[in-house]
Amino acid sequence: MTGRRAFRWHIVVFLAPAVLVYTAIMIIPLFGTLNLSLFNLDATRERVFVGLENFRTLFGDPRWSHSFWNALANNAWFFVVHMLVQNPIGILLAALLSSPRLRMAAFYRTAIFIPTILSFVIVGFVWKLILSPIWGIAPGILDMVGLKALFAPWLGKEEYALTTLALVSVWQFVGIPMMLIYAAMLSIPDEVIEAAEMDGVTGWSQFWKIKLPLILPSIGIISILTFVGNFNAFDLIYVAQGALAGPNFATDILGTFLYRTFFGFQLQLGDPHMGATIASVMFLIILLGVCVYLFLVQTRLRRYQF
Amino acid sequence: MHKARHSPARSIAAHAILIAWTVIALFPVFVIVINSFKSRKAIFGDPLALPLPENFDLVGYTTVLAQGDFFQYFLNSLIVTVASLFFVLLFGAMAAFALSEYRFRGNTLMGLYLALGIMIPIRLGTVAILQLMVASGLVNTRTALVLVYTAQGLPLAVFILSEFMRNVSHDLKNAGRIDGLSEYTIFFRLVLPLVRPAMATVAVFTMIPIWNDLWFPLILAPAEEVKTITLGSQVFIGQFVTNWNAVLAALSLAIVPVLVLYLIFSRQLIRGITAGAVK
Q: Are residues B54 and B73 in the same domain?
């Protein structure tokens, strides 16, 4: 290569800044964290290599494993609520928005996306205030429709708190599936829709038989984005319930568990090694999800080229 | 045929559902903002009433502005967001140009390596990032945040921008080469201006998570003088939980700038999302 023409330094110049920052701040710390999970302090507070001992503690020691499985189960439920509520609502809204000649579509689109741009801090506190039994907005509204008896301090009850927070998160992020599906629906050629109409396929059957199969790849992307986002979530729970993820750890997910372990809370000291161990497990879970998506889901989805 | 598609009943049902969700989406924000202008008694007495002259009260805003250093927080957020955005766009566009323009050994591999960060969240490296920042003395500096956010934003920026740069006309670039322009001039003078719409899209996508992030400011820069507005309002509200006027005013102050920015850029954002998928 060098014999034929001079080494093209400009390629290096163009690539170097991005690759350096990305490698130094993202890739090396990621592997540093994975590596740190294999070390711990010995009796003399020296750092020693312990192999997979930290993982054995995490899964085997009842004090750790109980918290871990609790956080993982809560996180899984958090994800299930998103898949069952957020994505269907997003698809429904997108289907309605993309119907031709709908007036005010731009207004709806802009308005429904507003919660998505707000920070978790705002969203967490706003809902905390609205659901608060002290203020009385939520019971007041339920009273108006005659359902006052249904009110409960949802964020304070162990059995409701996690689902409530998951629904708050759904409220915030429903704009993302809505927009992506909306974009996918706009890209369906008019000829396909017209051909369906010639054959008398309209309305809901048109949605189920023509549009849904065509937007399946987008639904796949939304599912994996939801998965990565949910198993990486932290902010909303931290803002609404604090690092202790109350009541009684009912809303503890992997993100808050990692934060508490790494930084400590109340009387427990922070533990970077166990923190790194939890981060490694989260890494493996997310990696597993991404691989399942890439190798099992994406390859089986049929893509239609127009 | 068209009757079936646009029957009035169907259209009314569609509007009803969309209006219902719009109300659900906007109602919480609306309630917070109207109540922030009311007296404490009115907030509890009739939370759904609009602020009227007889219950109008700005005590919440005066408390917030007297207590928290919100102007400093806002400035910190602005500096961190703008600086990160600048580096993400510059470095991202340069790398995207190299990947889309030149054929060299390892091109695809480099593209995949940079795309890895789209799926794997940078937060998982937090433990080691904090150690790195402690070792280099960057804890409690805005530089630490800018570095982290630049790394976080780059993968998606490179991915989207290289898709767009592939579509820039080769004739144009080759004409530039024949005229003796250097590769750098071609990039900065010819290609960058042409991908400006894509840069705007990347900018909006990069900006929102940086502005709203709580995790890294909490861990890397919790000191008073470098606090971002997101962390600042979280801490402030945590301290003033019982002062409802102050809490509602602080929330309104945090909502308004984001809302204004969004309304300015919303067309760009929506066009960006739809353009990416239509491709």
A: no
Q: What is the pLDDT of residues A173-191, one digit of tens each?
A: 998 899 888 888 888 888 8
User: Of A15, A33, A117, which has the smallest distance from its Cβ to B208's Cβ?
Assistant: A117
pLDDT per residue as tens digits for the range A61-113: 998 999 999 999 999 999 999 999 999 999 999 999 888 778 888 889 889 98
Query: Is residue B114 assigned to a domain?
Result: yes
CB contact under 8 A, A25 and B151: yes
Let me know whether B182 and B116 are in one domain: yes
Residue B234 belongs to what domain range? 68-239
**Closest CA–CA distance from residue B90 to any residue of chain A (Å):** 9
* Structural domain span for residue A41: 10-49
Q: Are residues A19 and A109 in the same domain?
A: no
Tell whether B27 is covered by a domain: yes
Q: Clarify whether residues A99 and A236 are in a common domain.
A: yes
Pick from A100, A180, A232: CB nearest B121? A232
Q: Which of A21, A120, A287 sits opposite B154 (nearest CB)?
A: A21
Question: Quick check: A119 and B254 CB within 8 A?
Answer: yes
**Residue range B78-86: mean pLDDT, rounded:** 94
Asked if A45 and A168 sit in the same domain, the reply is no
Question: Does the residue B266 lie in any domain?
Answer: no
The count of structural domains within chain B is: 2
Q: What is the DSSP annotation of chain A? A: -TTTS---HHHHHHHHHHHHHHIIIIIHHHHHHHHHTTEEE-TTS-EEE-TTHHHHHHHHSHHHHHHHHHHHHHHHHHHHHIIIIIHHHHHHHHHHHTSTT-TTHHHHHHHHHHHHHS-HHHHHHHHHHHH-TTT-HHHHHHHHTT-GGG---GGGSHHHHHHHHHHHHHHHHTHHHHHHHHHHHHTS-HHHHHHHHHTT--HHHHIIIIIHHHHHHHHHHHHHHHHHHHTT--HHHHHHHTTTTTTTTTT--HHHHHHHHHHEETTEEP-HHHHHHHHHHHHHHHHHHHHIIIIIITTTSPP---
ipTM, two decimals: 0.84
Tell me the shortest Cα–Cα distance from B182 to chain A, in angstroms. 9
Residue A192 maps to a domain: yes
- For A:114-153, CB contacts with B below 8 A are 114-115, 117-122, 125-127, 129-130, 135-137, 140
**Once rounded to an integer, what is the mean pLDDT over residues A192-212?**
86
